[in-house]
Amino acid sequence: MNTVKTAFIQTIIEKLLTYNDESRSYNLECVDIPCVTAPIDDNFYQLPQELIDDITTKPYEVMIGPQINMTRNTEIEIRVNIMYDEYETSHVYVIIPSVVSDYQGYCACQENEIGYNTLKRCTGVACDWDRPSFQLEKTKYYGEFEWGKLQKDFWAYEQDVYNNQKIEVTQEKIIKKKQNIERIKERIRKMNLELDEQEKELQEYEDEIS
Ligand SMILES: [Zn+2]
Fold first, then answer.
1. Domain count of the chain?
2. Which end of the chain, N or C, is surrounded by fewer C-beta atoms within 10 Å?
3. Ligand 1 is an ion; residues with CB less than 5 A from it
């Protein structure tokens, strides 16, 4: 059991090291590896039994990739592909590293306090910090579905998507414009009524004195 855990975390660390090497070569921010692995390590035996069983009995592959909707390179997800065999994925566990803000109070630690960490400038006991965490999801892998036609057919499709999008946007604008015109016409109709009324009243006053 312990070796399963060790191997799992070691695989994740190795993949993250590679990921960071690549990030570094593109001058991108690196992932804080201990921050990612700490909650996995700490919660390993609380993980769903099916995940533990899967990584104990089946081959699996760990992949690191950017999170969907990521804003920074450091926002990653860890995909644990559970394999049927060497080639085919059965299902995937997705680990989404995160942090939870732990508000314990603004740090006022003093250098002379017991346990004061000079590097972190804090005793690390009861101060505000970001507690490492992760979310875990399980997804079913159904396979890969390819565009089966020619590349030129794809280009035509591409053009269609953009054209249709343009038509859609223009149609929306037309609807909005028509609504605006209707509103203005309604305002004019009401103002005309008011104008008629005012003129009628004026006529009545003038008639009175004539
Ligand atoms: Zn502190």
1. 2
2. C
3. 107, 109, 122, 127
